[in-house]
Amino acid sequence: MAQAYNVAVVGATGAVGVEMIETLEKRGFPVKNLRLFASERSVGKKLKFKGADVSVELLKADVFQGIDFALFSAGAARSKEFAHGAAKQGAVVIDNSSAFRMEPDVPLVVPEVNPEDAKKHKGIIANPNCSTAIMLVAVYPLHKANPVKRIIVSTYQAASGAGAKAMAELEEQTHSLLHGKSDVKAQALPQRIAFNLFPHVDVFLDNGYTKEEMKFVNESRKIMHHPTLKISATCVRVPVYRAHSEAVNIEFERPITAAEARTILSKAPGVQVVDDPANKKYPMPIDASGMYDCLVGRIRQDVSRDDGRGIDLFVSGDQLLKGAALNAVQIAELLI
Question: What is the layout of strands, in order, in the sheet containing 294-301?
Answer without folding.
Answer: 230-237, 148-157, 244-252, 310-317, 294-301, 271-273
